[in-house]
Amino acid sequence: MAKVEDLNGKVVWITGASSGIGKAIAQQCAELGAQVVLTARRHAELENVRQSLTNPDQHISVIADITDESQVRHAYEQVLQQKGRIDWLINNAGLSQRALIQDTTMQTERTIMEVDYFSQVFLTKMVLPTFLAQKSGRIVFISSVAGLLGTQYRASYSAAKAAIHMWANSLRAEVADQGVQVSVIFPGFVQTNVSFNALNGEGKPQAKQDEAIENGLSAEDFARQTVQALQCGEEYIVIGGKKEKLGVLVSRISPKVLYKMIRKTKVK
User: Fold this and answer.
1) Which of 222, 198, 207, 120 lies closest to 163 in space, CA to CA?
2) By three-state DSSP, how is residue 248 classified?
């Protein structure tokens, strides 16, 4: 049995923490005694989340747009100033997509890559010296089952989520003997606002819910499974329904069968 990491008193920094998966993970970590650092763009929403956590006074809200490097640098300085260390960094902020490749502008392609890949790379590189100096800590990336499969209407999103997965694999290999752990989580369908905020081809939010997401795991259930897996030190974590798990399994055994399955699936 793997030793379960005790989160009591640990500092857990979560991006995209104002709603959905980020908020649910924050609540789960706070229940287990962690000191949670919440980051997103809107202060009022972060404060609402902070007040909803167990022991709100031991948590802090740090505003930053993760695509703005100077804001991220400032946020990092604030976290170290107020908490002195970081035990878990959870790169959760992200942006999805619902558009055919032929309808997606290059600007939209770049926007999705900026949020889902480059900004996470920048924040991680910013925080890495702290982890290396501590000789401990866990860096977590929220990728997606889409990043393992690649489906219609999510080309740029799938590509960005696959890119962060591969970058994380390289990071894991580089820091493994320095006490730093790297985990990647691949969510299937989870009930959040992700599809409301997903970009259409012109880069505007589609503003409607997907049926698959409506029928997905609750954010709370997802967060519980995620934190548990991280506490056990797991590095490759797929969390979703039977269909998504089957897709991931098939992708590893027979890509050809997977491609056929995806072509027949109604995924919009």
Assistant:
1) 120
2) helix
pLDDT in single tens digits along all 268 residues of the chain: 568 999 999 999 999 999 999 999 999 999 999 999 999 999 999 999 999 999 999 999 999 999 999 999 999 999 999 999 999 999 999 998 999 999 999 999 999 999 999 999 999 999 999 999 999 999 999 999 999 999 899 999 999 999 999 999 999 999 999 999 999 999 988 876 666 677 888 888 776 666 655 667 888 999 999 999 999 999 999 998 888 899 899 989 998 998 898 888 876 6
User: Alpha-carbon distance 101 to 265, whole Å?
Assistant: 17
| Pairing state between β 217-218 and 190-191 | parallel
C-alpha closest to that of 111 among 201, 241, 210, 211? 201
Q: Are 62 and 39 in contact, with CB atoms under 8 Å apart?
A: yes
Residue 101 gets which letter from DSSP?
G
Active-site annotation, residues = 157
pTM value is 0.93
| Pairing mode, strands 217-218 and 60-63 | unpaired
Q: How far apart are CA 137 and CA 85, in angstroms?
A: 10
